[in-house]
Amino acid sequence: MAENGGIEAGLHLVAVPIGAARDITLRALDLIAGADVLAAEDTRALRRLMEIHGVSLGDRPLLAYHDHNGAAVRPRLLAALREGRSVAYMSEAGTPLIADPGFQLGVEARAEGIAVRAAPGASAVLAALCVAGLPTDRFLFCGFLPVKSAARRAALREVSEVPATLVLYESPKRTAATLRDATEVMGDREAALCRELTKRFEEVRRGTLAALAEGCEADPPRGEVVLVIDRAAPREADEETLRAALETALAAGSLKSAVKDVSETFSVSRNLVYDLALKMKDGG
């Protein structure tokens, strides 16, 4: 906040609830109530949220800003920012820029030296990780996968060996097909289907990818879907395999980073991998 009690000039990316209206921060309400200009992916959703929390729009502008009109509306928002005004942007739900529009607005604002601030809050990614029952120490957000099966499988192959829990968004109509493709590409890993998080009909289905796919065919999910997929099982690591992996990793980076990457990929002691890397460097 500015010293005068107003909102600091600049672009404020404000997280809003993904379901329960009370899942909003006090800071987010302050920004929505005080910003000079409001922009939202869905102005009707923002108006409803403001009504619930008793926040008045007054005579301030409220602009729709989404994927389809960004090129036309972005100049108006940037002009307000250049004038030293505060602009608060809200996606339809959750945190702006997490599979939502707003990225290009932030890029262009920063390029002009305009302050860009985040007011964190609700996120379907983090909510799903909390309830999925899968490891959370390392995760990769994959966003929305391609619609067509061939492209979707290619995208899944790209991340199938990443040593991290995978989180992705999916349309309820394509969830069963995505789970089938994931089973074919990744094998029958443990996974969770999380839908309508924080809403009245919240549901978490846990099981293998194949079992979840079968369940979706029998009982198709409805509403917003987040899929959480367990990481790949550690690969067997004989010395020949480790040497090949180290050669690739050393060609791409430092000894330290190569040892770290290989030891984590194969769940092998760093000391063992380090000793092998030194032996390889000495021609052994």
UniProtKB/TrEMBL annotation:
CDD domains: RsmI
Keyword tRNA processing on entry: no
An annotated GO cellular component: cytoplasm
Keyword Transferase among record annotations: yes
Cited InterPro entries: 4pyrrol_Mease, 4pyrrol_Methylase_sf, 4pyrrole_Mease_sub1, 4pyrrole_Mease_sub2, rRNA_ssu_MeTfrase_I, RsmI_HTH
Alphabetical list of SUPFAM superfamilies matching this protein: Tetrapyrrole methylase (SSF53790)
Gene Ontology molecular-function annotations: rRNA (cytosine-2'-O-)-methyltransferase activity
This enzyme's EC code(s): 2.1.1.198
Chief localisation class: cytoplasm
Keywords recorded for this protein, A-Z: Cytoplasm, Methyltransferase, rRNA processing, S-adenosyl-L-methionine, Transferase
Ranges of residues in domain Tetrapyrrole methylase: 11-212
Domain of life assignment: Bacteria
Signal sequence region: none
Cross-referenced Pfam families: RsmI_C, TP_methylase
Compartments where located: Cytoplasm
Reactions accelerated catalytically: cytidine(1402) in 16S rRNA + S-adenosyl-L-methionine = 2'-O-methylcytidine(1402) in 16S rRNA + S-adenosyl-L-homocysteine + H(+)
Residues annotated as domain RsmI HTH: 236-281
Entry's family note: Belongs to the methyltransferase superfamily. RsmI family.
Role description: Catalyzes the 2'-O-methylation of the ribose of cytidine 1402 (C1402) in 16S rRNA.
NCBIfam families in UniProt: 16S rRNA (cytidine(1402)-2'-O)-methyltransferase (TIGR00096)
Stated name of the protein: Ribosomal RNA small subunit methyltransferase I
Gene name per UniProt: rsmI
